[in-house]
Amino acid sequence: MSSSVRKERPVAGVERVVLSRPERRNAQNARMLYELDEAFAGAAADPDVKVIILSGDGPDFSAGHDLSERGSTLPGSPVATLEGAFGAAGVEGRHAFECEAYLGLCRRWRSLPKPTIGQAHGRCIAGALMLLWPMDLIVAAESTTFSDPVVAFDLNGAEYFAHTWEVGARKAKEMLFTGEPLSASDAHRLGMVNHVVADAELDSFTLDLAQRIARMPAYGLRLAKASVNGSVDSQGQDAAMERAFALHIAGHANNLAQHGEIIDPAGIGRIRELSRHRQEQT
């Protein structure tokens, strides 16, 4: 089976980790997430790597979770898991899986001991935010959009619920209530994105930023990152995320009780209708 993640070393000191399922718009299945974790862990342990860039192949950074594989968890995973009960009936198995593969891995990536940069382009939908938000910096192409339309599935939002810290409380509510995408310029204005650049300059600008960071001493970078993360933790982000995750699992339980599925199948239709409406407007 081919890998869904590719690693590159474009210049000394910088490793680029690339989501490589372009035929699925880099939609995330369990294998991709655990291969991504393996790539991050390898870069973190490599003394020759100072900065890590996360990017994606194809027209979109990521279309979020791969709903065609929503019933699967971890068969053939390349790494051992910490959670048990993945195969449990009802919502128990889904809770265990998402606790590790979504919330748990995102927390792990946020705490990598080296600077990370998310390189965003095309569409970044729902689960894509869970890959970008743990990154230390985000650079976006001008045409990039960011959205979390999963309220249509009777859920509260992506499992790594950092919305309030990323865009502010009122914009987070609008983003979730409507499912409408956020433009790169709005994301920059709200502080979610560090830089917005022309689409054709995205690769070169991000690499140049990584090289500038890589010139700094590694230990100083590690201490600075830990200090900023600690400040956010002191604001209560981690506790708020735990509460939001519990509500997310309640949404799965509701769908299971009402529809016999973890994800409400009608939600797919609602999201497609929203997408058609946007296309008509443009």
Please outline the helices and strands.
Elements: E1 5-11, E2 14-19, H1 30-45, E3 51-56, H2 91-110, E4 116-120, E5 123-125, H3 127-132, E6 137-141, E7 145-147, H4 163-167, H5 169-178, E8 182-183, H6 184-189, E9 195-197, H7 202-214, H8 218-234, H9 237-259, H10 265-281
Parallel strand pairs: 2-3, 3-4, 4-6, 5-7, 6-9
Antiparallel strand pairs: 1-2, 7-8
Helix pairs in contact: 1-2, 2-9
GO molecular function, one term: enoyl-CoA hydratase activity
Organism: Aeromicrobium phragmitis
Keywords: Lyase
Characteristics of this structure?
alpha/beta, ClpP/crotonase-like_dom_sf, Enoyl-CoA_hydra/iso, three-stranded mixed sheet, globular, lyase, enoyl-CoA hydratase activity, 282 residues, Enoyl-CoA hydratase, 2-enoyl-CoA Hydratase, Chain A, domain 1
Low-confidence stretches: 75-80
Please trace the helix and strand order, writing H or E for each element: EEHEHEEHEEHHEHEHHHH
How many individual helices? 10
> How many β-strand runs?
9
Structural class: alpha/beta
Strand order of the largest sheet: 1-2-3-4-6-9
Shape: globular
